Amino acid sequence: MCIFCEIIKGNIPSKKVYEDEDILAILDISQTTKGHTLVMPKKHYENFLEMPKDEYASLMAKVQDLAKQIINNLEAKGCNILINTNEVAGQSVMHCHVHIIPRYDENDTVSFRFSENDLDLDEVLAAIKKENC
Ligand code: AMP
Ligand code: ZN
Questions:
Q1: Can you spell out the DSSP letters for 80-116?
Q2: CB-CB neighbours of 62 under 10 Å
């Protein structure tokens, strides 16, 4: 069984930020910044691409509520919402989860760098629009 399913079942302890019938939110053990929280469906899906649309919509609605609560109560100035999808994107626990990472200042421990590529935008667009999945 995956580690998050073990947490959901109560076999591994966690710091619960929120829980209902379908969703669990816990403090991330790494606390990248103060209040770093993981929001997950209780049902095991490997990643968000696997989730039925209505369940994904409910999950993200709860992410929005919790992000507001965390920002307000911890006096953060903003947050990053992050879903790592598959190993290539840094997903290490293969049970869908959304990171809420509160941000306090630009020089904190989190950094995302979007480097530039000289790709042809029309080619990229044509490739994306090739098929509707
Ligand atoms: P990801 O790399 O997107 O799959 O994120 C997995 C996250 O789970 C990491 O940020 C870990 O710090 C966190 N994590 C792993 N094990 C636990 C645990 N037992 N309790 C809380 N967070 C955990
Ligand atoms: Zn699981």
A1: EEE---SGGGT--S-S--EEEEEE--TTSS-------
A2: 19
Q: Which atom of ligand 1 is nearest to the CA of 97?
A: 3
Expressed in angstroms and rounded, the spacing between residue 24 Cα and the centre of ligand 2 is: 12
pLDDT tens across 23-52, in order?
999 999 999 999 999 999 999 999 999 999
For each of the domains in the chain, give its residue range(s) and CATH number, in order of start. Answer: 3-129 (3.30.428.10)
DSSP letter at 56 equals H
- The helix or strand, by DSSP H or E, that contains position 39, with its residue range, turns out to be strand 37-41
2 in Cβ contact with 65 (< 8 Å): no
Note if the pTM is more than 0.90: yes
